[in-house]
Amino acid sequence: MSTTLHASGKRLGRPSVVAAAASQKHHLLYIWDRHSGRCFLVDTGAEVSVLPPSSTDTRSSKNGPLLTAANGSNIRTYGVHTIPLNFNSWRFKWIFTIADVSQPLLSADFL
């Protein structure tokens, strides 16, 4: 049995949390940051939050903490940055490791 939720009124801006389906069986949770315009993948299995590097980061010889992917491979890192976040008017400053990843990721410790 399914239920339907009805809401009235005007939607205020872009929603801060969006679920996106990668396939029929697997759903991913994203959260949108109003400050930077980035969409972060929420990964409850990750130990640290990560951001993809900028061109300035990749030119730097600075190394960050050692990271290992779920498949056992090493992930190149470029240091850490404290980034301001704004999720639907909830403001935070959060520490991110800058790493060779394809998209921003929020780890379980954020939740």
SSE order and pairing:
Elements: E1 17-21, E2 27-32, E3 39-43, E4 50-51, H1 55-59, E5 67-68, E6 74-75, E7 77-87, E8 90-99, E9 105-107
Parallel strand pairs: 3-9, 4-8
Antiparallel strand pairs: 1-2, 2-3, 5-6, 7-8
Radius of gyration (CA) equals 17 Å
Instruction: Report the principal-axis shape.
Output: globular
Helical fraction equals under 10%
Mean pLDDT: 77
| Ends apart, CA distance between termini | 31 Å
Number of strands: 9
Record the strand order, biggest sheet.
1-2-3-9
Would you identify the CATH H-level superfamily? Acid Proteases
| CATH third-tier fold name | Cathepsin D, subunit A, domain 1
Query: What is the level 1 CATH name?
Result: Mainly Beta
Uncertain segments: 1-25
CATH architecture tag: Beta Barrel
Count of folded domains:
1
Structural class: mainly beta
Number of helices: 1
Report the sheet with the most strands, covering strand number, pairing sense and barrel closure.
Answer: 4 strands, mixed
Order of helix and strand elements from N to C terminus:
EEEEHEEEEE
Strand content: 35-45%
What does this structure look like?
Residues 1-25 have low confidence and may be disordered. 5% of the residues lie in helices and 41% in strands. The longest helix has 5 residues, at 55-59. The protein has one domain: Cathepsin D, subunit A, domain 1 (Beta Barrel). A 4-stranded mixed sheet has the order 1-2-3-9, with no helix packed on it. It is built from 1 helix and 9 strands; from the N terminus they run ββββαβββββ. The chain is mostly beta strands and 111 residues long. One of its GO terms (biological process) is proteolysis.
